[in-house]
Amino acid sequence: MPPPGPSKPILLLCQHFYPEMISTGMHMTELAGALTRLGSKLTVCCAQPSLLIESANPRVASRMDYQGITIVRVPSSGSHAGGLLGRLLFALTYSVSTAWFVLRNHRKFGGMLVTTNPPFLGLVGWLANKLFSTRYVVIVYDVYPDIVVRLGRLGASSWIARVWEWTNSLVLNAAFANVVIGRDMMDIVARKAAARNRGKFVLIPNWSDDEIVAPVPREENGFRKEYCAGEVFVVQYSGRMASTHNLEPLVEAAGLLVDRHVLFQFIGDGAKKQALAKMAAEKQLKNVQFLPYQPMERLGEVLSAADLAVVCLEKTFTGLSVPSKAYGIMAGGTRILGFLDEEGQIGRTISENDCGVVLPDPTGEQVARTIEDLLRDPERLRRMGRNGYEAFKANYTLKRSAEKYGKVLAAMSAG
To answer: Are 269 and 29 in contact (CB under 8 A)?
Structure first.
């Protein structure tokens, strides 16, 4: 259990937060709630929602309390749900508004916890540190500009990339601590800081909340009854279908297994969704299903409904991002099919715990063959599901991760 929280609240800077329970928004809402229950005081500075699941993104109150957390929403323009220009405008205006909020209110807080969403948000922490000696901790979720460079959208030697790397070094070196969410990410990010500051890096994996996600037996699973009719083997991908996610082999495998009782289920949205749907339509695949994001309260049912759940990240992005949805899949007792580098954080987690199968950069034929092999070995499927659930309970619960964050924040506030 971490020491009691400081007299002044910690300020959490993150663009997405409750009720925006997708990706970083969900993780930061869960973490803030858990830290509050452990005794910390938090104020969150975020933007208006732009990725709500169940509504047309209405504006919410600019100031509200949620589970003991004070939420302040600063003005911004653009939207994360729009095109590139809209997302850039959203990131820039949110960051500027956040900087202004911090400049006006820095005396109220005992330190800051800053996410890398958007990528330049750490500069707000650095500025507060230089002007007011405010301490801050950075949470590295994605590594920039590396991702943009490997997507081919920015030259590695361009002036933008060089300036970006320089600002990263400023932010990482001045931080009280830098939290990374994967072993592979640690190797990359620590090299961006000066050698004397590499002791500031802390590994805290992401998590799943076992009060929200737990195994749901098939006969009690309302989501499976609603969307997975009959005795089908469900291969599921749930989450954002982003440019870094190599999901095409799933559609290719579906075309090879049209005569088997296998349903390929895609849940969510993202840059690749239309292209994947077009692939399935051109092949006239009736065993492929696309569904929208599901409500948070159904997450346990959704993840437990799968017989095999897909986690993916193209090999070129290993260490630059960590597909942490794997922990929710393990919490649901579901086996993982990983399209991942075997040496990445999640690839190693799967192999170390024997809770799934890792296929680095697979073809549709390899995916189909793996599914066929698993269909013939139900005992292996049961064993992998049990192994994943046991590993989750031991290592990847929300409470366990929150306690680690609590210790880092208590040390920052005590110094």
So the answer is: no
- Tell the residue number behind the tokens 């109150």, with chain if given: 61
Distances (CA, A) of 363 to 248, 310, 360, 366: 9, 14, 9, 5
Q: 291: helix, coil or strand?
A: strand
What are the residues whose beta carbons fall under 8 Å from the beta carbon of 407, sequence distance 6 or more? 2, 3
Give the C-alpha separation, 144 to 148, whole Å. Answer: 7
Sheet arrangement for strand 112-115: 63-66, 69-73, 42-46, 10-13, 112-115, 136-140, 177-180, 201-203
State the burial class of residue 130 (Cβ atoms within 10 Å of its Cβ: 0-12, 13-18, 19+). exposed
The residue among 255, 374, 241 whose CA lies nearest residue 306 is 374
Q: DSSP for 350-378, please give it.
A: HHHHT-EEE-SS--HHHHHHHHHHHHT-H
Q: What is 218-395's CATH number? A: 3.40.50.2000
The per-residue pLDDT for 7 is 78
Determine the average pLDDT of the residues in 36-62: 82
Task: Kindly write down the DSSP assignment for every residue of 226-258, as one continuous string.
Answer: HHS-SS-EEEEEES---TT---HHHHHHHHH-T
Closest CA to 224 of 195, 215, 351: 215
Q: What is the pTM of this model?
A: 0.90
Q: Can you list the positions of beta strands (E) in 155-283?
A: 177-180, 201-203, 233-238, 262-267
Strand spans (E) along 76-133: 112-115
Of 99, 95, 21, 46, residue with least CA distance to 268: 21
Q: What pLDDT, on the 0 to 100 scale, is given for residue 107? A: 95
CATH 3.40.50.2000 segments of the chain:
10-207+397-414, 218-395
Tens of pLDDT, residues 178-233: 999 999 999 999 999 999 999 999 999 999 999 999 999 999 999 999 999 888 99
Where does the pLDDT of residue 54 fall: very low under 50, low under 70, confident under 90, or very high at 90 and above? low
* SS3 of residue 43 by DSSP: strand
The fold of 10-207+397-414 is Rossmann fold (3.40.50)
121-159: pLDDT as tens digits: 999 999 999 999 999 999 999 999 999 999 898 999 999
Pair 266, 273: CB distance under 8 Å: yes
